[in-house]
Structure prediction request, 164 residues.
Amino acid sequence: MYSTIKPPQRVISPDAVKVWRMTEIVSDIIILAVLGGLYGLYSYFDWKEWISWILIGLAIVTVMAAIWGIVFAPKLKQKYWRYDVSEEFIQLKYGVWNEVHALVPMTKVQSVELNQGPFLRKYGLYSISVGTMGTTHEIPAVPQAEAHELRDQIAHYAKIKEVE
Prediction:
């Protein structure tokens, strides 16, 4: 009979919310700047009127998506992200609307990486990427000490499974 695997309990850092908000703000500013530049070109070159309506529509959609992506999505994403690591599996559970519960067998793990961009660095966080033959799985926004420990633990468990 199969043993029951308990759901993952470890959570990602609450500072992930700040990182995701800053990332969203930067990307939205870039998108709005491009749309503004296109609108300026529309005015300068006297393009067809329907182009301005498309650009205005895209700007409105971008602002609405920005509100969702800055105010609501980061907090929900952090609330529903869970992970755990054992000798047999890496468990990932995430998703607000579409819940994903992934079990990655240690025997399939080929690589483990720590990634840190400028916003993650500001808060002392890392994302852990676990590579398998088919895909890469990510655990976002793990505090520095825990991330290094987790990377070493996953590498150790994966190596033990390869030797056996």
